[in-house]
Amino acid sequence: MRPADPGRLSGLRAELYDSGARQDAYERSVINLIASDNAVPGWRRHTLPYSGDMIQEGIVGRRPFAGAALHNELERIAAEVACEVFGVDHAILQPHSCSQANQAVYHGLLRPGDRVLALRFRAGGHLTHGMRHNFSGRTYAFDFYGVGADGRIDYDEALRAAKEFRPRLVVCGSSSYPWIYDVAALRALCDEVGAYLHLDLSHEAGLIAGGAFPCDLGPADVVTMSLDKTLRGPHGAAVLCRADLAGRMDAAVHPGTQSSFPVRRLTDAAAALLESQTAGFAEYARRSVALTRALGERLLAFDARAVVGGGSDKHYLLLDTERVFGRDGRAAEELLEDLGLLTNRQWLPHDRSSGFDDAGGLRLGTAWLSSCGYDTADADALADLLVRALSGDDRDDCAAAFAELVTRDRPGDVRGSTDFDWTAADGGSEA
Ligand SMILES: Cc1ncc(COP(=O)(O)O)c(C=O)c1O
Known about the structure:
Oligomer: single chain
Strand content: 5-15%
Number of strands: 14
CATH topology of the largest domain: Aspartate Aminotransferase, domain 2
Order of helices and strands: HEEHEHEHEHEHEHEEHEHHEHHEEEHHH
Strand order of the largest sheet: 3-9-8-7-6-4-5
Shape: globular
Radius of gyration: 22 Å
Helix content: 40-55%
Number of domains: 2
Bound molecules: pyridoxal-5'-phosphate
CATH class of the largest domain: Alpha Beta
CATH superfamily of the largest domain: Type I PLP-dependent aspartate aminotransferase-like (Major domain)
Number of helices: 15
């Protein structure tokens, strides 16, 4: 290896700080409709329970590194908060991401080659639900269920597939399926074929915690969820389960699929979970769903084909740019990005082609909008702007409409908060 060149390093340092500062400024100048993104409350940058940098590994009471007494205490408290919020017996907050949490679930419940039934990728499933390029599709034998013409999961098809395929595990969860899940139907299906039920609530966790998305975790054997996304916590994930699977899931996380984790992830996550039980968070979650609805209604008023399935129960909807505007998802994403509207191209259930660049539409998320205090009048204005931009209206006119939306001060914007109102969602005070 060649020795480092101090002159080059000094140049790279300047580039790094310059580039980082421009990214900070850029993020303040855009409207972020990427459904997995969110804006983190300002108070969390100042008043978190623990601000150290230690890592730890293993489970409570069984650690390979010294200095673990308080780590045990912190992990026990954080896990208890998660159990309390989601009404489960056992919680592990160590996974680095929801992909890794899913990996741990498969590792804990399956052997390589075992059969798994999951929602088809184009119907909303995730890479870790059996995509052939992903570890999941390479390690386990996946089959899929899908959605009907109305865009809703076809539970009868899922049952037929399960009876024929005899999976050991059924995965329910999605990245781009905008509707409530019928968890009871999937439980019945699992009982019929003797399979475990895994709910992957990566996207919905914050909405569920905030009471804005009904989803019964009780029938599931195992649940995974992102701590970031709608939950607005640190990047990472949780595995939740019943008491009888606790030992297996602990071992599946460590030593099964990961070693160390930053202790701060546990404490940051616990702070976010506690916040999720406050009135302010409930309002954020409710508003995110209301914003999706408002955006959807306005887009549907423009063209009845605009919103795939005709609506959404969540913090995102799917916009069919191909059919309505004659632009594929990639072209639409790039056009909007040029204005400062960040979205992501999205495969739609009816898309025929298989290339990522051929996605037929966009996924439009509202969690960031809600955290930044946008209201339903803003959602209407945003829908109008999307329609104008995607219809090819004059760019300067669209840019002016965009500037109007992005610059306004909004009282509900959490980014500016320096402390937090711990008033509970039921009106009680935790302070
Ligand atoms: C349903 C679902 N599961 C798992 C994941 C993986 O999460 P991560 O990207 O944090 O690994 C995602 C990511 O968006 C997801 O949508």
